[in-house]
Write a structure and sequence with these properties.
Elements lengths: L11 H12 L5 H8 L3 H13 L19 E9 L3 H10 L3 E6 L6 E7 L2 H10 L7 E8 L9 H14 L1
Antiparallel strand pairs: 1-3, 1-4, 2-3
Helix pairs in contact: 1-6, 2-3
């Protein structure tokens, strides 16, 4: 559930490959090979290695949650009395919970939820989150607006490429 902190050994071609996949995860290996000026089988081998090493964890469709009927993004800051691992696991089981992070500060956990409306949020809180043994306090923060999707991966690849150059 929680990510681990192993650092993969990536070269400049790996970083350029990741950049191309971040731009278009559905690009063919042949197209990527042309961009990188290497063979398509080499691209396939590199992608397979990056998947095995956990650098590439999957390929996903970017979804417009509002179009699917879940326009509300809500953050729930949670204080757990004991056994955070149990609370974390229980939160992970709730369908509306998109992600949970263990955090520092005045709360223990921060969960991101997607719900239809305030009535749906109330139901999730009353029937699911507040029923988890060990949950002491929950504060919800409703997102009023979101920025457009940022090409975060490509920006961070740029940071890694800069690290390699220095």
């Amino acid at each position: 559930m929680l990510g681990d902190s192993r650092k993969a050994d990536l070269d400049a071609i790996d970083l350029r490959l990741l950049n191309l996949l971040a731009d278009d995860a559905r690009a063919s290996q042949r197209k990527i090979a042309r961009e990188l000026r290497i063979s398509a089988p080499t691209v396939g081998e590199r992608i397979a290695r990056l998947e095995r090493e956990g650098v590439i964890r999957g390929y996903r469709a970017e979804v417009d949650w509002g179009a699917l009927g879940f326009p509300m993004q809500v953050f729930a800051s949670i204080i757990a009395a004991s056994n955070q691992a149990t609370v974390l696991k229980a939160l992970h089981e709730i369908r509306e919970v998109e992600q949970v992070s263990v955090v520092t500060g005045s709360m223990d956990l921060l969960a991101r939820l997607r719900v239809r409306d305030p009535t749906h949020l109330r139901k999730v809180l009353l029937e699911a989150i507040w029923q988890i043994p060990g949950v002491v306090r929950v504060e919800t923060l409703v997102s009023l607006a979101e920025t457009t999707h940022k090409d975060y991966l490509q920006g961070m690849i740029g940071v890694l490429q800069g690290d390699q150059e220095s």
